[in-house]
Amino acid sequence: MSQNRSRGRRRKKQPENFFDYTLLFVVLFLLVFGLIVLYSVSAYEANIKFQDGAYYLKKQLIATGFGLAIMVGAFLVDYHIWERLAVPAYVVSILSVLLILSPLGREYNGARRWLEVGSSGMSVQPAEIVKMGIIIFLAALITALGPGIARWKSIGLIAAVTLFPFALILFITRNLSSALIIGGIAFVMLFMADPNYKKYFVLLLVAAAVIVLLLLYVKGVGQKTGDFRFNRVLAWMNPEEYADDTSFQTLQGLYAIGSGDFFGKGLGESIQKMQLPEAQNDMVFSIICEELGVFGGLCVIALFGVLIYRCLLVANNAPDTFGALLVVGVMGHFSLQVILNIAVVTNTIPNTGVTLPFISYGGTSVVFLLAEIGLVLNVSLRTTVREQV
Hints:
69% of the residues lie in helices and 5% in strands. The protein has a 3-stranded antiparallel sheet. A two-stranded antiparallel ribbon has the order 1-5. By secondary structure, the chain is mainly alpha-helical. The chain has 2 domains: 199 residues, no CATH class; 112 residues, no CATH class.
């Protein structure tokens, strides 16, 4: 009897190695589901534009395969190496945005946001590089600051190093959504690292007040300026008035959600995808709701909820501060992107052009999202299960 008790005590002292199979399964399921939905949504447009209904699917398959290889690589390499490479990662991400101004910069739909890779026609979106670069750099910087992160001086430093890529993304690529996500990632990482969290609620209240004042300003002078961002805000406030241009996409997306009822019309049976321009990109969630209903939309939200929860679990049990902050940064990225995409589709916020992770069409996005998942899995592999969230 005493021998059994001693063996039990010895077993308790040995940490249990942990690999998050649930997180991996959810990611793989979202990838497969995303490819199926992508084909359903894009086949009509691809047939018209390229005479090949699987055109977008083939390109996304190539990017997904490459992204999975990157994910495996990120999983196999000890994540601590990124702490030593944090500054180069930050510099490379900044340079990638500046290269947009060079002949390598590529314009699409009136926006110059891509870098051309060789003569193959492939392109990379620097905003995705910056998101991952800022996660790595801030994780290393906050770890180095240690308990000093609670000081306003440290918070100012974090704000400064975030504001630079934020401004570059906003003014060079005119990509407000990516700039907001970068700022949001920094805020989430600071909030999780600083034990004195009350000041962040004050900052949120100040930000909310500033936003309200900006909305009132736009409502008063927006039509006079002719700025496309102001027009988007005005269209959000009164979509019917801009139904022919600015709010056309938003209204078609709302029609799609409304016509799907609870269980949807059936996969591939969407009508609104023939009306929605670039439906496979930002507005893919509305087509999911049309074809699979509100039930299908809620299931997708639940899957992302599980993904974010598993990231939180890994961060909570990470072996060190750097690993925990890496995972928190990834969690913040996914959370913000999912929330903003669904908010745009449902017209809760103005249209900002945010993709839905793993489901919307976009090669650069899926590659870097999978790289981030590889980092999380790498941290989970070096984690011992000590405490549930």
